[in-house]
Write a structure and sequence with these properties.
β5, α3 and β6 form a beta-alpha-beta unit. Helix content is 39%, strand content 15%. By secondary structure, the protein is α/β, with parallel strands linked by helices. The protein has one domain: TIM Barrel (Alpha-Beta Barrel), CATH 3.20.20.100. The mean pLDDT is 94. α3 packs parallel to α4. It has twelve helices and ten strands.
């Protein structure tokens, strides 16, 4: 059956400008890091993407290595785009990245011009697209001149394969160097995608938001600290079937009595705000207008809809709440 989107899809979502650009990004974006790879249920993945669009989530974020297996999330997204969402391409903001290992040998990793240009071509082919809206360098490369890496991004824009570019996992000093180089090349750098949550505050120690203010927008991934900032782990148990139960590399393996106490205290603050812990975690990030968007993941429509509640909450944080959160997490 042909998909027909919700006519009122833009009414509940709010949008923020990405840095100093004219590009608007929804406050919640959908990341396809997990749940869209080879092992995913295609019908479930389709329902999640269509439901996200129905709620005004126009931004779908991918990377060449998303899966598992690497590349498979882009392939599945391309299939769903062709089957259901293709006619709405101009309403969608599609991003992808390159920077992690994709193929053997010296040209399938990091930030060389050869790797980035080849990777973008491969991503476009997997998704069946002529261009992406944003193409990111996924991580800094200590061995490639920054000018070469940024030059490759600028080439993608000049070739029409990307409308904007971004960087990911860049600290303040390197982010501003990258921005300056791209400005010299006339290339629009709009976002720095970084890990940021109530439990992970490195961006504050790095003064990243201050450095990027009104220059580059920030889009935050892992806002729920890979599931810790949900109700799942409040009793110290790893639920069967959760991502943590399948991947021992996740930080949930390090759940300690001290961490449990912290999570439960945060949950009490959330409940007093009439929010779940996950809703509060997302609201806490969006309280800062310099945060352009929060990247959420979803394994079901229900999970997606729970996260969407965070943008419906119209209650600012009190000074007392912010102090209490900081005492627990800094």
């Amino acid at each position: 059956m042909s998909y027909k989107p919700n006519r009122n899809r833009y009414e509940e979502m709010k949008y923020r400008f990405a840095g100093s650009s004219g590009l608007k990004v929804p406050e919640l974006s959908l990341g396809l890091w997990h749940n869209f790879g080879t092992e995913a249920d295609h019908s479930v993945a389709t329902k999640i993407l269509c439901s996200a669009f129905d709620h005004g989530i126009t931004h779908f974020d991918l990377a060449n290595n998303y899966g598992p297996a690497p590349g498979s999330a882009e392939s599945r997204f391309g299939k769903i785009l062709k089957e259901q969402l293709g006619s709405y391409r101009d309403e969608l903001l599609i991003s992808t990245k390159a920077g992690y290992t994709m193929w053997p040998g010296p040209y399938g990793d990091f930030g060389s011009r050869k790797y980035l240009l080849a990777s973008c071509d491969q991503s476009l082919k997997r998704m069946g697209l002529e261009y992406v809206d944003i193409f990111y360098h996924h991580r800094p490369d200590p061995n490639t001149p920054l000018k070469e890496t940024m030059g490759a991004l600028a080439t993608l824009v000049s070739q029409g394969k990307a409308l904007y570019v971004g960087i990911s996992n860049y600290h303040a000093k390197d982010a501003m160097k990258a921005k300056a180089l791209l400005d010299e090349m006339g290339c629009p750098c709009v976002l720095n995608q970084v890990r940021y949550s109530i439990l992970d505050r490195w961006t504050e120690e790095d003064n990243l938001l201050d450095a990027m203010d009104d220059k580059i927008g920030m889009i935050c991934f892992s806002p729920l600290a890979q599931g810790l900032l949900t109700s799942r782990y409040l009793k110290g148990e790893v639920p069967s079937g959760s991502r943590a139960s399948r991947n021992t590399s996740l930080q949930t393996k390090n759940i300690t009595p001290e961490l449990l106490e912290k999570l439960n205290n945060l949950n009490q603050i959330a409940n007093a705000r009439s929010q779940t812990l996950s809703e509060m975690a997302i609201s806490w990030l969006l309280k800062d207008e310099r945060v352009t968007s929060v990247l959420i993941g979803a394994s079901s429509v229900a999970q997606l809809e729970e996260n969407l509640k965070a943008i419906k909450a119209d209650r600012p944080f009190s000074d007392e709440e912010l102090v209490a959160i900081d005492k627990l997490t800094t």
